[in-house]
């Protein structure tokens, strides 16, 4: 069982930055991928970024490429999402997730462990 706790959300103006953190109870030993997902009101949950925990390969949604960076600190069992140049359309609840099986990296249906979410609000 992997438990995930997100932090770092908040309210910023467009163009600003935030860094999300996800503390994991266990880390790379039992997961293939970890990722960040977001869900805005009335919309489906979508993949934002993911990382293959064993090799460090990263994956990004087209909408965040060049602005967001996913990273991991194995010593701290923590996953990060650095978000720069934020836009109002980035407003959503952001979730950290982990997959204990081979998965499509940014497909939420392939993840079996989820955090409770942290809200990100970007004002224009």
Write the layout of secondary structure elements.
Elements: E1 4-7, E2 10-13, E3 18-24, E4 33-39, E5 46-52, E6 58-60, E7 68-73, E8 78-83, E9 92-99, E10 113-114, E11 118-123
Parallel strand pairs: 2-11
Antiparallel strand pairs: 1-3, 3-8, 4-5, 4-9, 5-6, 7-8, 9-10, 9-11
Shape: globular
Cα separation of the termini: 40 Å
Give the helix proportion (percent range): under 10%
From N to C, what is the helix and strand string?
A: EEEEEEEEEEE
Class per helix and strand makeup: mainly beta
Mean pLDDT: 93
From the alpha carbons, calculate the radius of gyration and give it in angstroms. 13 Å
Uncertain spans, ≥5 residues at pLDDT below 50? Answer: none
Strand content: over 45%
Total count of strands:
11
Largest sheet: 7 strands, mixed
Number of helices: 0
Structural description of this entry:
The chain is an all-beta fold and 124 residues long. It contains no helices and eleven strands. It has strands at 4-7, 10-13, 18-24, 33-39, 46-52, 58-60, 68-73, 78-83, 92-99, 113-114, 118-123. Strands 2, 4, 5, 6, 9, 10 and 11 form a seven-stranded mixed β-sheet that branches. The N and C termini lie far apart (40 Å). The model has no long low-confidence stretch (mean pLDDT 93).
Which key phrases capture this entry?
4-stranded antiparallel β-sheet; mainly beta; 7-stranded mixed β-sheet; 124 residues
Summarize the structure.
With 124 residues, the protein is mostly beta strands. The chain has strands at 4-7, 10-13, 18-24, 33-39, 46-52, 58-60, 68-73, 78-83, 92-99, 113-114, 118-123.
């Amino acid at each position: 069982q992997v438990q995930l706790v997100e932090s770092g959300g908040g309210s910023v103006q467009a163009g600003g930055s935030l860094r999300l953190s996800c503390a994991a109870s266990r880390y790379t030993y039992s997961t293939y991928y970890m990722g960040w997902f977001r869900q805005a009101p009335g919309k489906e949950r979508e993949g934002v970024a993911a990382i293959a925990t064993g090799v460090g390969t990263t994956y990004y949604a087209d909408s965040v490429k060049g602005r967001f960076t996913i990273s991991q600190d194995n010593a701290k069992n923590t996953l990060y999402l650095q978000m720069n140049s934020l836009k109002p359309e980035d407003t959503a609840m952001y979730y950290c997730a982990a997959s204990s099986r081979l998965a499509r990296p940014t497909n939420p249906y392939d993840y079996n462990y989820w955090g409770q979410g942290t809200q990100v609000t970007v004002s224009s």
